[in-house]
Amino acid sequence: MNLPILEDVEYRPAASRPGTAAGSRSVYIETYGCQMNVADSELVASILNESGYQITTAAEEADIILLNTCAVREHAEERVIGRISQLNGLRAHRPNLTLGVLGCMAQHLSKSLPVRAPFVDLVMGPDAYRRLPEILAQSSDDALFDVRLDRAENYIGVDPVRRTGTNAWVTIIRGCDKFCTFCIVPYVRGRERSVSPGQIVDQVKRIAQEGFKEVTLLGQTVNSYREGDTDFADLLREVSAIDGIERVRFTSPYPVDFTDRVIAAMAEVNEVCPSLHLPVQSGSNKQLDTMQRGYTIEEYRELIRKLRIAIPDIALTTDIITGFCGESDEDFRLTYELMEEIRYDSAFMFKYSAREGTYAHKKMNDNIPEEIKGQRLQQVIKLQESISREVNQQYIGQTVEVLVEGPSKRPAKDGQPRFYGRTRQGKTAILTQEIQANEIVNIRVTDTTSHTLLGEIAE
Ligand code: SAH
Ligand code: F3S
């Protein structure tokens, strides 16, 4: 089912809302979707903090609740609609509660949200967050909107409020210019723009001073980064050279823009971790063409070959879509065989979900029945589970470096607490000894599952 975009809808929140000038008002932010959204929520927290709002982690106590949302698949939107309705129930005890929807879904559904969730007070797209304090301070009977996309907005000068932890997200490029036919991102996040290398380096220096050892550079097409003479390979080297930074990651690169210079930087710079998320989407050239991905499967394979030669211990992950328009049994077989051939460490796998406004929605026939999409999805999930299990088993007996993140939510079977962290390949490692967060330790892997490595401190 696709959501209609309704024109000329009058927007009426449930109750007249007083202006929420900062004072001691508290804000709860809930984040959905990709790491870019996680990073954007940190920006929002910073912008609101600067204006005197307090950030809280308890929705029930908050004066303002903001959901930072994702529009990539319809399912993600359905979940948010359900959640907003649930949160709206808090108004019974907090009549002055302000409920806002931010991010990609706010941008995408700005016209139809008023109908589907008429109690929402605030709708704001990803380029408008600087205006949040101003808008929250306005007193109004009507919901407040700002869904203008701004070609220039890079949130320069806003220093994100980072959750304490071990990895800091740093957005280096916003928006996307690729317009893959299935994808809503270019429409909700606007045109591609890079942050200046100077700003990025300054930010990472501050992060290192705060004690973070790991940074992840973010962008929808992170390796398309270019600003003046600096390309992504230069940036990787500059960021890695900053004192205190021991691990550099990035996500997600776009296969077409993956240069030999970036491969060289990954191979030569020790801080750049040997892990790479390289979305392929499909193993069929016909499908890649209708998706307008810009590469053939032969070119993608060649890129993987070069990466594995240059960085032999690299862990590779990917995104797969099943049941995109016109996907025949043969096209699907090619995807399945590609996964068997490449043997990714893990994969994010999705059923195609038609998104209003995209080229595929307007011009192509979403002709694969839901049932077939689902069956194909189950097949690739099953295949990937067994590959991931086998790939991880190869680590048994090896010593791997782990950056400890903290206590694991699930204790061992005997009730003993466990701790978790991440290897340089980006795999989750579980250990039974207590190690302080942010420590880097070597562990010997004793057992594995398809998702984790288990181990103990190496002598
Ligand atoms: N380049 C971005 C991609 C964002 S969308 C990045 O930073 O990762 C993430 C993934 O969602 C895509 O790679 C694709 O596999 C999947 N996706 C995007 N649009 C989709 C749709 N309409 N239906 C199903 N999956 C989709
Ligand atoms: Fe989407 Fe393709 Fe850009 S998947 S984010 S349009 S690279």
List the helices and strands and how they pair.
Layout: E1 26-31, H1 35-50, E2 54-56, E3 64-69, H2 74-88, E4 98-103, H3 104-108, H4 113-116, E5 122-124, H5 132-137, E6 144-146, E7 167-171, E8 173-174, H6 185-189, E9 193-194, H7 197-210, E10 214-218, E11 226-227, E12 230-231, H8 232-240, E13 247-251, H9 260-268, E14 275-277, H10 285-290, H11 297-310, E15 315-322, H12 329-342, E16 346-351, H13 359-363, H14 370-393, E17 399-407, E18 419-423, E19 428-431, E20 440-448, E21 452-457
Parallel strand pairs: 1-2, 1-3, 3-4, 4-5, 5-6, 7-10, 10-13, 14-15, 15-16, 19-21
Antiparallel strand pairs: 8-9, 11-12, 17-18, 17-20, 18-19, 20-21
The structure holds S-adenosyl-L-homocysteine and FE3-S4 cluster.
Residues 176, 178-180, 183, 185-186, 220-221, 254 line the site of FE3-S4 cluster (F3S).
Q: Could you tell me the radius of gyration in angstroms?
A: 23 Å
* Count of alpha and pi helical runs: 14
How helix-rich are the residues, as a percent range? Answer: 25-40%
For the biggest sheet, the summary is: 6 strands, parallel
Strand residue percentage: 15-25%
CATH topology of the largest domain: pyruvate-formate lyase- activating enzyme
Number of domains: 3
CATH class categorisation of the largest domain: Alpha Beta
Distance between the termini: 57 Å
Give the tally of β-strands.
21
Shape: globular
What number is the mean pLDDT?
A: 91
